[in-house]
Design brief:
Blueprint: E1 2-10, E2 20-27, E3 34-39, H1 44-58, E4 63-66, H2 78-83, H3 90-98, E5 101-104, H4 112-132, H5 137-156, H6 173-179, E6 182-187, E7 193-196, E8 199-203, E9 216-221, E10 227-231, E11 234-236, E12 238-241, H7 280-300
Parallel strand pairs: 4-5
Antiparallel strand pairs: 1-2, 2-3, 6-9, 7-8, 8-12, 9-10, 10-11
Length: 302
């Protein structure tokens, strides 16, 4: 299956100067069946929305042939290469959960089928949007779904050379909801606060299986803005707070130096003696002890 994106197109037609949008286009390699959606930009949610619409209609594809864009694929860092980890984007993680392989094209010519398909949209779709006086992305997607795409597939789609359908079975809506979401790993602070997108999520302490401080949790976000905090796959209750709690300041007594209460050593105390002032007997002991150390030192050297 080929994936295409079209930027710079006007919703209401190039001459009318309507708002610019991005058409996300999916084309089946075997039948040339097309599914597309319009959005403001090439975002993760626009890409995920088109893929989910295809899965709900036809099932899970085996592979996607995409542009080399950071939305779909990215290069692994040195740390990931050393650990043997794959570099996955949010979209790549969604596809991995569904068992979809992503193949990144190195040039536009490598995707000739979808390029030709999209040339048709650039000629026909803009004119039809202008004739329909469509001014919003919602209206454009409704028109694509109800009129434009059914007519396009009726005229240009064809039967596959082989009757086998390699799409996997469509998952349930609940299973798709668990796939099409953003997942970001965060660390719980000592104050049980998780910071996410400049927001402060106060995790509530609960039961014996609560997430510990400095523990790692996963913040899940859906397209509608719904959030969940999960620790080891289990939901954790939380509430959003306006700012991070400040550490309470406790007045601690100042440390006072205690004066020395003992008797100071006299001038004849051994601590105050120098080698040149030591008795000959004591000096001889130090010399013998030092000689033993000097003799023993070379033996330790290989």
């Amino acid at each position: 299956m080929n994936w295409y994106r079209w930027t710079g197109a006007s919703i209401s037609g190039l001459r009318n100067g309507g708002p610019k949008g991005c058409l996300m286009n999916l084309v089946d390699d075997a039948t040339a069946t097309t599914l597309a959606a319009m959005g403001a930009e090439e975002t993760i949610w626009t890409a995920a929305g088109v893929l989910r619409s295809w899965i709900e209609e036809y099932g899970v594809p085996v592979a996607l042939y995409t542009d080399w864009k950071t939305v779909y694929v990215k290069e692994a860092t040195e740390q990931q290469l050393l650990r043997g980890e794959a570099a996955l984007t949010q979209f790549g993680r969604m596809c991995a959960r569904l068992g979809i392989r992503i193949i990144a094209a190195n040039s536009p010519q490598a995707k000739g089928r979808v390029e030709r398909n999209h040339g048709t949209h650039q000629d026909r779709l803009v004119k039809k949007l202008r004739r329909q006086k469509i001014q919003s992305y919602e209206s454009a997607n409704e028109y694509l779904k109800s009129e434009y795409l059914p007519d396009h597939n009726r005229r240009f789609a064809h039967a596959a050379a082989s009757p086998e359908d390699y799409h996997h079975k469509k998952p349930s809506q609940a299973a798709l909801d668990e796939v099409f979401r953003l997942e970001t790993e965060r660390v719980i602070g000592n104050d049980w606060v998780v910071r996410y997108e400049n927001r402060f999520l106060q995790v509530n302490r609960q039961g014996n299986h609560q997430a510990p401080a400095k523990g790692k949790v996963v913040v899940c976000e859906w397209e509608d803005g719904r959030l969940e905090v999960r620790y080891r796959g289990q939901k954790s209750s939380w509430r959003e707070i306006a700012e991070r709690p400040r550490r309470a300041e406790v007045d601690q007594p100042r440390k006072v130096a205690i004066p020395y209460g003992g008797t100071p050593p006299t001038a004849s105390h051994p601590w105050k003696q120098r080698y040149d002032g030591m008795p000959e007997q004591s000096l001889a002991k130090h010399q013998i002890r030092g000689a033993a150390i000097l003799l023993a030192a070379p033996c330790a050297t290989p």
